[in-house]
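One such shown below:

_____
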Amino acid sequence: QVQLVESGGGLVQAGGSLRLSCAASGLAFGNYYMAWFRQAPGKEREFVGTVSWNGKTAYYADSVKGRFTISRINAKNTVNLQMNTLKPEDTAVYYCAAGRLLQRGPENYDYWGQGTQVTVSS
């Protein structure tokens, strides 16, 4: 079956950096757009960014643009989220997702990981 497993979350001070990874299995990874979403307590799941199947096109939420970068290594079935200049409002559970469309809505993604917690202290 399809599995997406996130790693790399943790506690970091404001202004710091973290790198999240998502390892995929059970799917033709290179055929899927990969995205990152996040969900803070009491809030809806929020789009962070998405990357095309070949890694050449990426879109980001305005709130993270210029600070976060998504990359993928198809040979390793892995997608990464480099997060720099972190802010307390970036605190959330971060999820990776796989879908067939380069879209922002979570309804467009077929498979989801279990999430990894990112906490940014002020």
